[in-house]
Amino acid sequence: MPAEAEFEGFWHRNHASLVRALSFTLDDAQLAADAVDEAMTRAFQRWSRVAGMDDPAGWVYRVAQNWATSWLRKMARRPTRRRERLDQFVMDAPGDVDLIRAVLDLSDGHREVVVLRFYLDWPVARIASALDVAEGTVKSRLHRALSKLRDSEAVTSDA
Amino acid sequence: MPVEERLRETLTDAAERIDVDGGHVDAVIHRAQRRSSRTRVATSVAGLLVMVAAVWGISQLAGIGTADLDVLSVPEGAQPVAVFLCDGRTCPEITEATRDQLRGELEGNPSVLQVTFESKQDAYRRFREEFADQPDLVESVSPDALPPSLRVLLSADANAEAFADRYRSRQGVEEVVVAVEGEPVFEGTEPPGPAGQ
């Protein structure tokens, strides 16, 4: 299959979920979309290598996340851009508004592993490889994140 | 319901509410193709040195010193020039004597404000730091790829191009790059926006 057709298939299978996952991680939908575009561009530039990887989508996620983080650092002195936070999107959702709010209140690192594990459904090993951290690190972040979420649940349900 | 299950449902539900426009894959492909034709210049040896020198030059002008290059204050208009030395890759390795002689000559030049030597190892280390946000670029450059250099700051009134020409032809010098002011052209510096560039 020619590279373009293969890449288009990859895009259609992964683009939306990667943008959504990264939107949660960054709590910024527009930056996430731009970051995934950037990472997908780089993926196509080196498609034969990326396509041959064990986890091309994991690669795109990491490149996008790194790019967004570094972009935020560079732009820190020029706060002209309005951030597209997620609460405006998700608060209208039927169902567990409190849980979403609790997820958005987590620290970036905790929120990220929760989203990769429970929205993208990536196993711990895949998360570790995508983020280039040890599996133990992922497990302990998940553990802490879940216990924070359970605590916030306990508080709100008692109210 | 355990929190894990509720998270799965809730996150999926919430995620669906985030509007994603996925119809621009063609624009992304075109953008990649345009960059690849530009990057072909940048990944040649000469192109890599230009990029490295340009990023270094900008940090000098912005007054951002790195640990090994002491920049306390850069005089207004000072021009950063990188003199890359032969290390056997593309020209016979410069001898220590020749390097010392070259350095002495530069230091004696009234237009030269500062000369600092950067070893191959230092160059590679700094390259990894400066381009940390481009993991693929970093991966594609081997630790051996960057030559040692004499990093020179020329006074504002010096003719940097003439200086570069003069030293470029010297034995033991691989290349001389006059770091250009302004944004270096390499991938990833475009501000975020729709994939139209």
Describe the structure.
The complex is a heterodimer of chains A (159) and B (197). Chain A contains nine helices and no strands. Chain A has 159 residues and is an all-alpha fold. Chain A starts with a helix and ends with a helix. Chain B has 197 residues and is of the alpha+beta class. Chain B contains seven helices and four strands, in the order αααβαβααβαβ. Chain B is elongated, with a radius of gyration of 22 Å. Chain B starts with a helix and ends in a 19-residue tail after the last strand. Classes of the chains: A mainly alpha (159), B alpha+beta (197).
The termini of chain B sit apart by 47 Å
How much strand of chain A? under 5%
Q: Could you state the order of secondary-structure elements of chain B as H and E? A: HHHEHEHHEHE
Strand order of the largest sheet of chain B: 2-3-1-4
Q: State mean pLDDT of chain B (0 to 100 scale).
A: 78
Bin the helical content of chain B.
40-55%
Q: What does the main sheet of chain A amount to?
A: none
The low-confidence parts of chain B are 65-72, 181-197
Task: Give the terminus-to-terminus CA distance of chain A.
Answer: 58 Å
> Radius of gyration of chain A from the CA trace?
17 Å
How large is the count of helical segments of chain A? 9
Q: How many beta-strand runs of chain A?
A: 0
Helix fraction of chain A by DSSP (H/I, runs of at least 4): over 70%
Uncertain runs of chain A are none
Assembly category: heterodimer
SSE string of chain A, helices as H and strands as E = HHHHHHHHH
How would you summarize what this structure contains?
The complex is a heterodimer of chains A (159) and B (197). Chain A is mainly alpha-helical and 159 residues long. Chain A is 77% helix and 0% strand.
Relevant terms:
heterodimer, A: 159 residues, mainly alpha, 9 helices, 0% strand, B: alpha+beta, four-stranded antiparallel sheet, 4 strands, 45% helix
